[in-house]
Write a structure and sequence with these properties.
Elements lengths: L7 E4 L1 H17 L4 H29 L7 H21 L11 H4 L10 E4 L2 H4 L5 H9 L8 E5 L3 H12 L5 E3 L14 H6 L8 E4 L8 H12 L7 E4 L12 H9 L7 H6 L8 H9 L7 E2 L27 E6 L2 E7 L3 H16 L6 E5 L2 E5 L5 E2 L7 H18 L10 H16 L1 H4 L3 H4 L2 H5 L4 E2 L10 E3 L5 E3 L15 E2 L1 H10 L4 H15 L5 H25 L3 H23 L5
Parallel strand pairs: 3-4, 3-5, 5-6
Antiparallel strand pairs: 1-2, 7-8, 8-9, 9-11, 10-11, 12-14, 13-16, 14-15
Helix pairs in contact: 1-2, 2-3, 3-7, 6-7, 9-10, 14-20, 15-21, 19-21, 21-22
């Protein structure tokens, strides 16, 4: 099934350099404490993104990773910043030499290739991968400053720098595995190939976020090093989790991965089980909500469903591997949902969006943001939306106001979402996998209409998460939206779309057809001054069903727990039925 995709942006190197320089100066103006540390991590991540963008541009120009270019020189600054982050963490946020903005301004952005393609480091944005954990793992690994450190781009650029900081090393090499996602390989210059194969006595550290479905990025690095005589027990791996490579890994990749030592520190090790009080999440939260009156309650991985007042047999499905980390924090000021929103600038953007939605009355109150975590009011006496108990026209009115607000407030530039052509390819692929050739051919008639439909598309930061369980009904009858800040920028191929995507999502998730569907579209038109294109909406309803069918099918395959898998399968069956019905319906013209 086609579901996943990278979030990428085009960037001017001059603007990136200026942003990093401003970030350094802003961090230097802050006093000791978590806020300064978080600002320093933001600069670290931004610099890692710049190194990745420059290194990939150099790779595209020559077809090989090499040494001696601008990316190498920038990597030295990145390692220096990583050292500052590590010193700040070790000192309980009291110390950490922050480079002056002139340190980055000294790099000539005019000489760098541009524009750069920068890939969002998903672990920092979605999965609570904290760079400090990699330095902690490196410091405990037994390796020393003489080890060669390899960071696997994209996110491994920054993670490798933190491993170097934890070892006291000054050098970092980054590589870009290429080829089929399940069969990656490295393409290196002869000079770099020789530098990464220093002989049987060498110690090498390899850092990345994985392993994922195939583990092939780690596998490519391991294969190169083993081919050049580096023994497996002298290759130290720094992944983000203790799991094995996933279902698409080859036997050879599994064998290689298991044969080398792994050094892992997770978010739980770094923060939840931290020895020092100032490193613990409870201490981060108290300035916002007051001292906690009870231990944090972990409600990740579907744990939030225990608070819905429903029997487990009535729970909605959850995909624990894809859920953000989240906790309930209780203090005298009430109960608060503490949810990972992203480190650095990505998290700050989400918090600004959350504040706007809360002020507009569509989402719960926002208390603030603490080093990756958004803190919002947990409405204890709210009930999950039950469509049978809410007037459909009233629900359509509320959803329409919400979608209209998003369309007005959260415009989106080009290139941040899948094109209609890409959505067609996804829908056709997923339909072929699930429904067979006869029904899939019904999608072919839509392809000729795509150019005309594309002319009416106005991308916005769509919600992309209109499921019934994402809405709450307050005691006074008001309906509020949850989980509303970042699914337009998730780790999937959809991204920003015309608001018609969410209108289509509401039709599928909230059964908004007939009079309710007409009311929804009318309200969106009132709010935006632009009625959703009916043919575009019809097409996106097909795409939405095909995408969700793919996502739930893959989630069911990845979930080992029987009851959860059964819930996900029921949801997948609903999307399949909806897709079949729309494909069998006569096309709208």
């Amino acid at each position: 099934m086609l579901v996943y995709g990278d979030v990428r942006r085009q960037a001017d190197p001059r603007e990136e350099v200026a942003r990093i320089a401003e970030g350094c100066e802003a961090a230097r103006r802050l006093g000791p404490g978590l806020s300064r540390h978080a600002a320093l991590v933001e600069v670290l991540i931004a610099t890692g993104e710049l190194v990745q963008g420059v290194a990939d541009a150099e790779f595209q120009r020559t077809g090989r990773d090499a040494r001696g270019g601008d990316a190498d020189r920038l990597a030295g600054l990145l390692v220096r910043l990583a050292g500052a982050v590590w010193a700040s963490w070790q000192s309980g946020f009291a110390h950490g030499e922050i480079p002056a903005g002139t340190a980055i301004e000294g790099f000539s952005a005019d000489r760098m290739p541009g524009p750069l393609e920068i890939r969002l480091p998903e672990g920092f944005a979605f999965y609570a991968v904290y760079p400090e954990a990699y330095a902690l793992a490196a410091a405990a690994s037994g390796l020393d400053a003489g080890a060669t450190v390899i960071g696997i781009r994209s996110i491994g650029t920054t993670l490798g720098a933190m491993v170097a900081a934890g070892l006291g090393a000054a050098d970092l090499v980054t590589v870009r595995p290429t080829g089929h996602p399940f069969h990656r390989e490295l393409r290196l210059s002869e000079t770099l190939r020789g530098a990464l194969a220093p002989g049987p006595a060498a110690r090498v550290a390899v850092a990345d976020e994985g392993p994922g479905l195939s583990g092939s990025s780690f596998g490519a690095a391991l294969g190169l090093l083993r081919d050049h005589g580096v023994p497996a027990d002298r290759i130290a791996l720094f992944p983000s989790h203790a799991g094995e490579p996933g279902s698409e890994a080859t036997d050879e990749t599994r064998r290689r991965y298991r044969s080398s030592p792994r050094h892992i520190r997770t978010f739980d090790d770094l923060v939840l089980r931290a020895e020092r009080p100032e490193h613990r999440l409870e201490a981060w939260l108290s300035p916002l909500v007051g001292p906690l009156t009870a231990p944090l309650e972990d409600v990740s991985g579907g744990g939030w469903r225990t608070h819905q007042g429903k029997d487990p047999s009535a729970w909605p499905p959850a995909h624990p591997m894809q859920e953000r980390r989240k906790f309930l924090a209780r203090s005298e000021s009430g109960t608060w949902l503490v949810k990972f929103a992203g480190l650095g600038a990505e998290g700050e953007r989400k918090v600004r969006r959350a504040r706007m939605l809360a002020v507009a009355g569509f989402t719960p109150e926002v208390a603030g943001f603490r080093h990756g975590f958004l803190v919002q009011r947990w409405v204890e006496d709210a009930m999950p939306l039950d469509r049978g108990r809410v007037d459909p026209l009233r629900l359509a009115e509320r959803v329409g106001r919400y979608l209209g607000y998003r369309a007005r407030a959260f415009g989106c530039g080009p290139g941040r979402g899948a094109s209609l052509e890409a959505l067609w390819e996804m829908a056709r692929h997923n339909a072929a996998e699930a429904l067979g050739a006869d029904l899939t051919r019904r999608l072919d008639g839509w392809r000729a209409a795509l150019p005309g439909l594309a002319s009416s598309v106005r991308p916005v930061e769509t919600d992309n998460r209109l499921h019934a369980w994402e809405w709450l009904v307050l005691p006074d009858g008001r309906i509020v939206k949850t989980d509303a800040v970042d699914h337009h920028a998730g780790h999937d191929l959809v991204g920003c779309q015309d608001i018609a995507w969410d209108v289509a999502g509401a039709a599928v998730e909230l059964a908004m057809d007939g009079a309710a569907g007409r009311r929804l579209r009318d309200v969106v038109a009132q709010e935006t001054g632009r009625p959703p294109d009916p043919q575009l909406t019809a097409w996106l309803e097909i795409c939405y069903s095909a995408f969700q069918l793919g996502a739930t099918t893959m989630a069911g395959q990845a979930t080992g727990e029987h009851e959860e898998s059964a819930r996900i399968r029921r949801q997948a069956d609903r999307y399949r039925d909806h897709l079949v019905a729309r494909l069998r319906a006569p096309p709208r013209t």
